[in-house]
Amino acid sequence: MSRRAAQFALVALIVGASAGPAAAAPTRLAAMTKGPPAAGPPRSMNPSPMTARVEPYARPYRLAISFAFGFGSVDMERIHDVADRIQITGVTVDPPKSNLQINAEFAFRYYFPYFVLAQVGFSAVYNKVTSDYSAGPITGSIYNDNLIMEVPILVGGYYTFIDRLYVFAAVGPSVYFYPRSWWDIDGGGVPDFKADMGVGFTFMTGADFMITDNFAVGLELRYRGLRTDELKERKSGITVPGDYDLDFSGVSLAGVLRAYAF
């Protein structure tokens, strides 16, 4: 190597050595002033749409508003005794043709934690009885319409299945009022009757299936123990002799539509 080439190599080596620390300084300075990373959970903690847990439709802390409509039976044993007593006077009355009742209810229900539920409703129960009678050559029919209103106050339990099904049972007192019995006999002349308000009881069991998070359909089976005190003439208030009453006790089956407020 010539002397001149050796001088150029030495100069280049000196310049490179002096420029190295200066070139690395901006990189170190940028790393020191860059600041902390953006806030947020680690990537592994971010929920994935595929793994996020969805609340079941059937769950506690829910308020439901329901409408039920159904059919069932009533006893009306005391009313039927009227036929036996009339026959003593020489008038033959056939046995009543129907013990069918129709019922409807509007209710509020709340599902508490620990599988406890409470329900308060307003119900109407209606029964119509028809009988034929004869008194010698005279024949006719007796039409008897019976109605009672009730407020059942029920407490019970429930259990959930497959995230959509409530199975429940409840029992409690039922405050009844406006018991009425309207009579219509061919030829007229028969008054209508009433009874005082009182307290019976109701047992209920059934199941609801949640179609969506806010709507369900179901079935309810009930036994009502609703028997009034003695009947009174509706207008005068005079007690009817013979210890007659209205007995709405019986079993019924109803379909239910239930909407959930939350």
Explain what the structure shows.
The chain has helices at residues 3-33, 77-88, and strands at 62-73, 92-93, 100-112, 116-135, 138-161, 165-185, 193-194, 198-212, 215-225, 232-233, 250-260. The protein has two domains: 1-33; 64-260, Porin (Beta Barrel). It has 262 residues and is an alpha+beta fold. The protein has an eight-stranded antiparallel β-barrel. The model is unreliable at 27-33 (pLDDT under 50). The longest helix is centred in the N-terminal third of the chain and has 31 residues, at 3-33. It has two helices and eleven strands.
Gyration radius, in Å = 41 Å
Cα shape:
elongated
CATH fold group of the largest domain: Porin
CATH architecture of the largest domain: Beta Barrel
CATH class of the largest domain: Mainly Beta
Give the termini separation.
Answer: 93 Å
Indicate the mean pLDDT: 80
